[in-house]
Amino acid sequence: MPGMCDLGEHQHDAAFGYLVDTPVIRALIAETRRQTTAMPDTAARLEALKPAFAALLAADGWLPDAYASPDTKSGMGGGIGQYALYRAEDGSLTLFSLVIPAGAETPVHDHLAWGLIGVYRGRQFETVYRRMDDGADAARAELQVARTQTMDTGEFYSLQPPRDDIHFVRTVSDVASVSIHLLANDTGCVWRHRFEPDAGTVRAFRSSYSNAPCPQDPR
Ligand SMILES: [Fe+2]
């Protein structure tokens, strides 16, 4: 239909596909698809994807202001906004921005998918946990701090669960931080885990997206 996608700001109302349609996002998703087919080894695939991901972090002008702003109705609390930018309908891949206001922090959480995560604006302080129990009790989790690190704009890392999959992030810049996540699941809608390290507890957690609905909960 002529004019259907002529929204001016490259922002679409669809729940899946390119919710933000720009050449740099299309290039990263195409490269991810290509490497996912070409490289069955996850570590090698992540390494091969680093240049394309770095290119997205280095590019200007592709992230709409609305998707770089806090969300007062956040599913994660603290005004944290999680905005789907690309979302595969089969749940195999998502690109999203995560906006954490100055001084705010995420819950301790996991991701349950391989991918790449990097800082696009501001600075974040990350605490990574190691799980010490065997997961036999669905309500309990014993965590120990494995390491901490500060991430500045342009810095990124690869994620290959279960290693280093549990963390929380705090914005330590005086402006909101914006991080970009390329992850091999529908991160906002899958049931993940939220941890309380001091209490030793864990519970089911779905962050949701600020700009797109989740499919009906099958449980
Ligand atoms: Fe995270």
Which sequence of SSEs, written as H and E, runs from N to C? EHHEEEEEEEEEEE
Strand content: 25-35%
Ends apart, CA distance between termini:
37 Å
- Alpha carbon gyration radius: 17 Å
Please give the share of residues in helix.
10-25%
Structure summary, number of beta strands: 12
Strand order of the largest sheet: 1-2-3-10-5-8
The small molecules bound here are: fe (ii) ion
Shape assignment: globular
Structural class by secondary-structure content: alpha+beta
What's the overall average pLDDT, rounded? 92
Low confidence ranges: 1-8
- Main beta sheet strand tally, sense and closure: 6 strands, antiparallel
Tally of individual helices: 2
